[in-house]
Design a protein that fits this description.
The protein is α+β, with helices and mostly antiparallel strands and 218 residues long. The chain is 20% helix and 29% strand. Strand 4 and strand 5 form a beta hairpin.
């Protein structure tokens, strides 16, 4: 799509998760909570927002991005974002030699998840809540992969994150490396083929193979 193209509103779908990380919210782990807004056009994720209202006890942080434009962030204390807000463009984080850091579910683990993590030969495993929170960890270079190769997330969990990662050189796919479609549908909302997300697209195949229990060498 060219940004000068006219869009038919019937081709546009907005996916909203007003409280991603619900379990963590009820347990007082508010740093894991995000608000997710993803916009797709003809089934393809195009724009996204991941807002972290409790980045710390006194600040909140907002990330937004568009394909072919980039991903940007701002952290503020008063929560005020307006036309004068200064946004910082997020660059692809550097790789860390010898590190295979994985973010995965904190509260919904299953044997398939643990098998894939073991096959990936992870050097660090960070179990945290919230799909948006895991995407933030990737954008900030704290982990190399968000790995959850089973059903349990939905399109509203991943639409925004897929855009933010793609705009910085990363990727979010199913466990086989295939892309989800994001059309308007009441029935097809589950990410039934799991989720792999990486900050570096070049590493995607390694984790795809880990989910197939046959990881190659990095």
């Amino acid at each position: 799509m060219q940004w000068t193209d006219k869009c038919d509103q019937d081709d546009i779908v907005v996916f909203v998760d007003p409280l991603d990380g619900t379990k963590e919210f009820t347990e007082g782990i508010t740093s894991a909570v995000t608000v997710l807004i993803g916009i797709s056009w003809k089934g393809t994720p195009l724009c996204g927002v991941v807002h972290q209202p409790w980045c710390t006890d006194t600040t909140q942080k907002c990330y937004w991005g568009c394909l072919d434009v980039g991903t940007f962030s701002n952290e503020c204390e008063d929560g005020k974002l307006d036309s004068e807000t200064v946004w910082t463009k997020i660059e692809q984080p550097p790789t860390v030699d010898g590190r295979i850091a994985i973010a995965t579910t904190r509260s919904h683990s299953r044997p398939e998840v643990n098998t894939a993590i073991e096959a990936s030969k992870a050097t660090e495993i960070i179990r945290i809540g919230g799909a948006g929170n895991k995407v933030i960890k990737l954008l900030e270079g704290e982990v190399d992969c968000y790995l959850f190769p089973v059903t349990g997330t939905s399109r509203w969990d991943t639409c925004a994150g897929e855009v933010l990662l793609a705009a910085t050189g990363g990727a979010l796919t199913d466990k086989a490396g295939g892309h989800y479609e994001y059309p308007f549908s009441y029935e097809n909302t589950k990410n039934s083929r799991g989720v792999i997300a990486v900050a570096h697209r070049s590493k995607l195949e390694y984790f795809v193979q880990a989910c197939a229990e046959a990881p190659p060498s990095l």
